[in-house]
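Session log. Operator J.P. requested a structure for one protein chain; no other inputs attached. Running the standard single-chain path with token output.
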Amino acid sequence: MRLSTIVVGLLVAGILSPAAGTLNGPALAAAPTSGKGIGIRLLEAPVAARADMRAWSYIIDHLAPGSVIHRRVEVFNTTSTPKQVALYPAAAQIRNQKFQFADGHTANELSAWITLNQHEVTLAPHARSAVTATITVPEEAAPGERYAMIWAETAKAAPAGGGVAEVNRVGIRLYLDVGGGNPPPSDFTIDSLTAQRSPTGQQAVMAQVHNTGGRALDLSGDLKLTNSSGSLHYSAGPFKVQTGTTLAPGDVGSVIAVLTEQVPNGPWRARMRLESGLTKRAAEATIQFPASGTAQAVAAEMDTDYPVVALVGGGALAALAAIAVLLTQRKRRSRREPSNA
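Structure written below.
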């Protein structure tokens, strides 16, 4: 793709800001970084996953062969001019620890299962429109997880006589696992922590992570450092982990937390907390920052007690929620019914 011919702007619903006024709960909205343009957001999530904010950002589901589901998305125009928006599914994959999408309308198996009830919408200034995506899993579909995108795209043709054509698109990721029974669990281990120092002196800690579960992970989290010497206790952080690392099942990759303040070389007790949706893990190791470059990796000790609540699966959370609703209804009925005493 030559910049002299076409300029493409992309925003995937993964760099998001909260949006209000949704129908089924706290959806998240994608919007261009300039704050002006087109955006797209998911309007609903599976009942069993409504406690998982990741499921409000992306279409994440587990379906048996032959299943059909519908998901509503909303496309919106934040500009003061009308926008002609094209809508289409396209291929994606997880490669090199990243969720990567294909050029243009490139298809894959999952995108071929997706149909949209509208392929083009005209949005007035500051208007929005709901679109329904239908995912039909063939009866003969093989087990496994697949990835795709639903894109909303605007295009501006090059001026007559030559120039630059502009294409801007925003999208929603799809993570679809095919198989019978319950969905495969999500899980991971934090295997090691490595202290680093950049050529400019900035310190960082890298964690090696192994996806030991059956679903892809989008990792985020933080790092905290503590140092106890006699009666003195020092701490630094928490420092945010850089987002953008996605691991397919079985993958081993790394995430990094860059320190926003200078700290002594140590030794430090480093605690890394990572999460993907409702799956949360923590691990610790004693590290020391090198004068330059990268120190030797230190094996991390997993905190088997962290967390307690977040280890409950989506199905169990839905069951607990149903029990809570039932108990509430019974209490209300008991208040209304007259006493026999």
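Operator note: The domain at 6-178 is CATH 2.60.40.10 (Immunoglobulin-like).
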